[in-house]
Structures are given as structure tokens and as C-alpha cells.
Amino acid sequence: MFANQIGYYSLILGLLLSFLLCVVSIKDFKNSSKYINQNILFLSFLQLTLVIVSFLSLIWSFIKSDFSNETVFNNSHTTKPLFYKISGTWGNHEGSLLLWLLVLTLFIFIFLIKSREQPKKYKILTLLFQQIIIIGFFLFVLMTSNPFNYLFPIPTEGLGLNPILQDPALAIHPPILYLGYVGTSIIFSSSLAAVTQNYVSKEWGQHIKKWVLISWIFLTIGIMLGSIWAYYELGWGGFWFWDPVENVSLMPWLTLTALLHCIVVLERRASLTSWVVILSITTFTLSMCGTFLVRSGILNSVHTFANDPARGIFILIFLFILIVLSLGVFFLFHKENNKNLNNFFWLSKETSILINNWFMMYFLSVVLIGTVYPIFLDVISGHKISVGPPFYQKLIVPFLVPFLLFMSLGPRLKWIKSKIENKKTIIITFIISVMLTFFIIKNLTTDLLFYTVLVSAAFFLFFTTLKEFFVKRFNNISQTVAHFGFSLLILSILFNNFLSSEIITNIKIGEKYSYNKGEIFFKKIEERKESNFNSIIAYFEIKDGNGKTVELKPEIRIYNQPIIITSEADIKTTLLEDKFLVMNLVKGNEYFNIRYQIKPFMVWIWISVLLLSLGGLMNLFKRRYEKEV
Amino acid sequence: MKKKFNLFIIIIFLSFSFVIFYKGLNNSNTYTPQIIDKKNIPIFKAKDFNSSAYVDSEKIFKEDIFYVVNIWASWCVPCRIEHPLLMELSKIQSLKLIGFNYRDNQINAKNFIIEFGNPYSKILIDNDGILAIEFGAYGVPETFVIDKNKKIIRKFVGPLNQEIVDEIKLIVK
Amino acid sequence: MKFLKIFIIILLFTGFSQLRSDEKNNELKNKILKNIRCLICQGQSVYDSESDFAASIKLIVDRKINEGMKEESIYEFLRDKYGDWIIYDPKISKNTYVLWLLPLLLFFAGGAIILKKTNLKK
Question: Do residues A480 and A542 share a domain?
Fold first, then answer.
């Protein structure tokens, strides 16, 4: 009961604090002191605290199953396990907005305390721009998506949470993803601040880089968690569906990666300033755009939140205000750099990073156009089409070949002007990659020419970065690790694709099904009762070509509220392959339909993404080391 | 000068996008297939409900009148709700009702007919749903109106209501 | 050093052909099913969906493949019944020229800009 009040009024106070902060900051901006008014830090901390209090109140209401709160009623149930009652707090639209506010206020506060040596006016402007975003979200929550609405009479039971959301990976996926996704707001605000102060320089680059890295690492891991969840929860062993909600998280990742590389140029050579500012603006804009696309009901997807056009209109207007504001600031304040600095020699590190930008922007345009084009076409002509995986694959995969090659050669180039050293080694590595590829895949695919080219390029990057571990050792190791991780990612995905196989069949209890080299034995079924579902567990013994036997136990669960039947796959993971078994009931029959998949190198896909993030993490700490020296 | 030109282009593009997204919000995001041009009825063979013999589609739709195809099943709750309206339609001389019994158990279906009445001049069995797909249906109940040229001219997804029945009556006059 | 690496990798790739034979037809069928949207569970492909509609489509696709119908004709058949929406791969038609060409145009525009900005001599 009280929690509702506390939660709601904390939000109101938080909003009022935003206005107060703006007033105090503008005043402090005008006075001539070199140091920021300490009150500002205090007020920012207070605002963060209020949002935390509000967030905790909502969690408390969920834990207590307080159904007088409408959000809790819509998304929870007394029989849900405690862990999912808590994670259910941010698994819905209103609660997830509190998470947005939490990250927004947290990041600006940490920014203020970690930027003591930065110019005062720059810090204040960053705070002001961030407050514009924060105010927007406070208004959005209070006006259209209040998590603290009262229900009277108080229902005795809630509507429950969709069972496929009751999962550990999905419980932590939003917080981690948001730290990345929403974290790009600080990059947005500080870039705009830097532009107005003509502070887009080497020093600023060094300062903002850690924020870019932090957002990037969380965003990478957040996306990975979502894919892992989709892999074992959403059915048939896929992990990326080019679904609008997935695309919406990928787009800021692409621009953030491009931004990361541009910052490297900025802090060394003080050029590419326009790129840095535009990418900073674009990344957060894409985050907001993504929020619009998935919460407004404009798109058709399994992942979207509850549809509400009224909310959509609010976000749409808010989004366009931000775009107009940021572009306005850029056009008014951005000063073109010294012309000479921006003309690069064709064979240089700067150019290779420009080329990276070029490809990233291309991939971004494919994903963006693919996602929003059906909306445009529908509104203009009424014609409805679908844009799915084949579109993205056809436009992206071929371009991976030159991209991988550039990625292998780029890091070897020096700044300003370079020559290609060790031409012989490069050519030998290339030939080995092609020969190795041809030998391995000639029996695996009918599209031999195309895949030979693609896989060779991936192997070329693989061997090049592997060699750099030995040659460069700890010099720039974060880059080597990250690029190596990327090559491993492409190789894992490709080989997983070539080598995966599947059996679909109907089988009875006690029956044995023989396939090519092995046998599937349906041993028995057991029933089990949990607090909010009943399940049928099936025991299968699968003998593979080498005589080894594994036991797999897929389940069919019948949840009580809402009443939904789900299939839970059982997956046995080893470094070499995943064995994936999922089962479904066949209507009116004693048969069960099973899908058994062997997926080689599946776990390497996750390992390679972790390597990517590790590279980013290593760079984060390298900065600190370098500063101390 | 170049900057101003870029700015102008961007403003145009943003305004255009804003309008599109704004309008897009009001469109439904789920897809319902519409009839765009009038297509001929598909040619198929199906099992007769009563005689269990296979019949050709040409023989089913041979008369020079309107046909109304209705996809139904005994387990489908909205089908019960629309049934009295089907009985009403069956009394009209200028049309004949053809029923597709979709993914159903024959005994349950027979009981359904006995209990609620039989509006159909012919019932066909569609146990695997293939017949429904030939007609472009994807669920149950769905109803199609076929004109004298053997073309599908109207399609109704979901249970019939009085409005739809009145519209059908106008078409077949 | 390099040869050791290669040798290990080659070793890893033997023994992965357990389920590979009599897979060609299945591969084609699955490829097609993944390209068809389910009308009942509208966020899923027919391959992923367990709905009645998906089951019927799977049967029809199976039959048509066995009758020798080509992949593109199967898509045409379904588009004819349900509209373009039902196939994930957007057909190249006057409605989708912009969709397919715009990214490529942007790519070449980007390349042109880079060529302009970089010098062949310092």
C-alpha cells in the first residue's frame, strides 16, 4: 500500500528535482568560478536516490504480490517463485521505464564524480542535456505509463507473467542491455556539450572513451544474453531471427562500434570530429527510435511490449524533439576542423578506420531500412510485405568478405602514412587460409565458390590476429583479442551452419528410432509438480555414431496462470557440439513429436562474443594503467 | 552553402519520416490477408462427409448459382455462435452452402450437425487443413462467397454476424 | 607452428557427417519453411510454429516438393493465396526496388566520399 505512495511521489520529486537542477546549473554556468557547485553533485545524487527508492518500491510491491498496484496485477501471480517476482518488475513496460530512469540518473551522477578534471562548463552542459532526456522520461512515465496506478477493489490474484519470460537469462538481460543501451545517453549529452564548447579534441576523446567502452561492453553482453535465451527457450535452436526487437538492439551496437574506432582516431590525431559527434547523436537516437518501434505497437513481433498508440505518439514526438535539438546544436556550433587534417593518405590507419565506418554504416542502413521499410510502404501504398532473414543475409553476408579482409590489414597500418610490411607473410597466410578452407568445406556445401571465399576471409582474419598475439604480445592486446573474437564468431556461425543437422520424427514411449549412425531411445516419462506449473519430463537415451550415449530430458510444462503450455528443450553442451532435443505433444495421440539437433561449435559463438567484450574490457583497464605511467 | 543544403535535405527527410511514423501508429500491426483480385476457385478432390467417396470440385460447384463455402469444426466455439446465421442463409434459394469440416473427429462432427442442424447442401472433410489453404483460409471459422463465374468474390474471417449475412443476401439477389 | 595449428583444425573436422545423408530434400524443405510466415503466430516462421495452420502448410510444401515443384513456384503459390506478406524474402518488384537498392546506393555513395577524402600522395 505504502509502497505505491512512496514510489509515485519519489517520481514526482525526481521530476521537480530535474527542474531545480536545471536552474542551479544554469546559474552556476554563468558564474566565473572554475569549479562546479558542489550542490549540483548533491542534487544529482538525490535524484538518483529518489529513482532508486521508486524502483525499490515497485520491487517491493511485486515481492509482496500487492495487487492494489495495477502493474503488479497485470504481470505477477502469488505462485510465482520469488526470483521471478523480482525480475518481473522490469519485465513489463512500466517497470522497464523505471529501469531507463535508473540508468539515466545513475550515469549522469557517476559522470559528474568521475570528471573532476574536466572543464566546468562542459560538465554543466552535459548535465543539462541529460536532464532534458530525464525530464522527458519522467513525463512519459507519469503521464502515460505510471507503474503505481491503484486498483480498487483490490484483486485477490494477479494475471501472471508469461512463462517464457520466467527464465534466468531473460531476468538479467534487461538490466545489462539497458546499461549499454541507455548508457549511450551520456555519450549523446556529453558530445552535444563538447560541441557547444568547441571541446571536441584529443583530451575530450580520451575522457569520453571509457564511457563509450562501458556502454559498448554492456550492450554486447546484453545482446548475447538475449540470443542465448532465444536459443534455448524459443524453440528450434535458432539464436538470431532478424526480428524487429533484435534489430533495434543491433543498430546502436553498430554505430557504437564505429564510434569506438573513431574515438581512437580522435584521441591520437584529433581528426574525424564530425564523425564522432554525429555517431554519438545517432547512437542514442537509434536507442530512442528502437524504444519507439517496440513500445508503440507499430511493428509486429513476438517480443514487443503491450501495444499502445498513445504512448507511441509521446515517444515519437520526444524522439523528434531530441533529433531536432541535437542536429540544431551540431549545425550551429560545430566548427570544421583544419581542412588538412581530414585528408588522409590512402594507406594509413586513419583511412582503414574510415573504411570501417563505411561498412558499419552500410550494415546499419541494411538493418534500419529492412526494419522500417514495411511501415513506410504500408502507409504510402497500403501494400503489406515482410522483410525477414533472407533479406538481411543476402545484403550483409557478401559484404562480410571485404570487411573481414580490411579488418585483417587495417590494424597493421601505421598512422598518417604506411606501407605494407611483410608482404610475403600476408600472402602466405592468405594462401593457407584459402587452401585450408577448400579442403574442409568441399564436402559440406553446394555453394562452394561463395563459401570458400567467405570462410577463407574469416580464416585470414583468424590467422592474422592469432599471429599478432605472438608478434605484438601485450602491445595493443585489447584490439587483438577483440578482432580475434570477431573472427572466431564468424567462423563459429558459419561452421555451425554447415554442420548442423536435425531429425524430426514422431515416437512412442519405449520406441527406438534409428538414424544414420545412431539411435534415439524414448525410455520413459515422469510427472513433476512445481509451484506454478506441472510438467511432463521425457527421458531419452541417444546413442551417437561413436557409441557414446547421452541422456536428454525435454519437458512439456503446463503453467497455471496464465494457462500456457510450453516445451522446454534439453541441451547437452560440450566444446565440440550441442545436442538439442525438444518435444511436443501430437494432438489426440500417444505419440510425441521430437526434434533432435546436433549443433557443432554452438558454444563457441557465445565464447567469441565474450572474447569481443573481453577485448573492450581490457582496453578500459589499459587506459588506467597508461594514465598512471 | 553546402551546409545549408544538407540541413535542408535533412529537415525534409525528418518531416517525411515523422509523418509516416505518425500515420503508421494508427494502422493495425497484425496481418489479415485481403482479397485483391477475384480468383477462380481452386481445383481439388475431397472426401464427402456422408458417403466417404471422393468428389471433384467441378462436380461440387457445377450449378449456375452462388455458393457460400464455410469452414467449420465441432470443437470451434465461434462456429456454434454463427450456426443459426448459417441456417438462415441455407434457406435462400439463390445460394447453396458447402461446408468444409476442418481437422475434426467424424463422430463429434456428426453429433454437432444432429444437435444444431445441417445448413449445408454438401459437407467435405478437410482433416489436414489443405482444403482450407487452397482457398486462402488460415483458421476457423472462415466463409467465402463464390459467384456464378466460379470466382471467389468475398471472404469473411471469423464468425458471421447479422451485418455480414445481410451483405451476402444483397450479393446473391 | 603454423602446420601444427592446421593439423589440429583438420582433425577436428573429421567425423561430423553423422546426419548428413538423405538430408538434401529435408534441407530444401526446411529452407522453404523458414521463409514462410505463420498467419496464426504472426511473429514466427512456419518452421518454428506448432499451430494448425503451420502443420497444414508443412504438409502442402512437402507434397509440392515431392511433385517436383520448384522453390520459387511454391512461394508464388502461397503469395497468390495470402499476399506478399507471407514470405519473409521480399520479392523484387516495383514495391521493393527502394528496399533492395537503397542500401547498395548508400554503399557506393559512401565509397565515393572516401575516395574523395583520401589522397594517393601525401
Answer: no
Query: Quick one: which of A198, A330, A323, A361 has its CA closest to B3?
Result: A330
Both A101 and A30 in one domain: the answer is yes
Q: Tell me the residue range of the domain where B146 lies.
A: 39-171
**Residue A608 belongs to some domain of the structure:** yes
Residue A186: which of A324, A314, A44, A51 has the closest Cα? A44
Is residue A107 included in any domain, yes or no? Answer: yes
- Maximum separation of any 2 CA atoms in chain C, in Å: 67
Q: Please answer whether residues B39 and B76 qualify as being in contact, where contact means their C-beta atoms are separated by less than 8 angstroms.
A: no
Q: Give per-residue burial for C11-50: e unless 16+ CB within 10 Å, then b.
A: eebeebbbbeeeeeeeeebbebbbbbbbbebbbbbbbbbb
B163 within some domain: yes
Q: Could you give the CA distance from residue A21 to residue A37 in angstroms, rounded to a whole number?
A: 11
Q: Tell me what pLDDT residue A564 has.
A: 84
| B20/A380 touch (CB, cutoff 8 Å), yes or no | yes
Is A600 an interface residue toward C (CB < 8 Å)? yes
Assigned domain for A14 exists: yes
Cα-only R_g, chain A: 27
A520 conformational bin, left if phi > 0, alpha if psi -120 to 50, beta if neither: beta
Do residues A190 and A205 lie in contact, with contact meaning Cβ atoms separated by under 8 Å?
A: no
ipTM score for this prediction:
0.88
Same domain, A479 and A607: yes
Residue B9 lies in a domain: no
Q: Which of A143, A165, A187 is the last residue of a domain?
A: A165
Looking at A197-308, list the stretches that DSSP marks H as alpha helix, in order from N- to C-terminal side: 202-233, 244-269, 273-295
* A455 and A577 assigned to the same domain: no
**Within a domain: B5:** no
Residue A401 lies in a domain: no
Report how far apart, in Å, the C-alpha atoms of A253 and of each of A117, A229, A246, A256, A480 are. Answer: 29, 19, 11, 5, 19
Residue linked to cell 534487461: A174
Span of A106-110, A297-301, A449-453 with lowest mean pLDDT: A297-301
Residue-wise pLDDT for B27-63, tens only, equals 877 888 887 788 888 899 999 998 889 999 888 888 8
Q: What is the pLDDT of residues B71-112, one digit of tens each?
A: 999 999 999 999 999 999 999 989 999 999 999 999 999 999
A334: left (phi over 0), alpha (psi -120 to 50) or beta: beta
The better pLDDT of the pair A2, A104 is held by A104
Does residue A132 sit in the same domain as residue A49? Answer: yes
Which residues constitute the domain of residue A83? Answer: 1-165
Give the span between the Cα atoms of A13 and A21, in whole angstroms: 12
- From chain B, which residues contact C within 8 Å (Cβ)? 30-31, 33-34, 36, 39, 103, 128-130, 132-136, 138-139
| Contact assignment for A499 to C30 by CB distance below 8 Å | no
What's the CATH number for C23-117?
A: 1.10.8.640
Same domain, A443 and A510: no
A298/B3 CB distance under 8 A: no
CB-based contact A384 C85, cutoff 8 Å: yes
Task: Give the start-to-end residue ranges of the domains of chain C.
Answer: 23-117
Q: Which chain A residues have a beta carbon less than 8 Å from that of C122?
A: 345, 416-417
> Per-residue pLDDT averaged across A343-357, rounded?
86
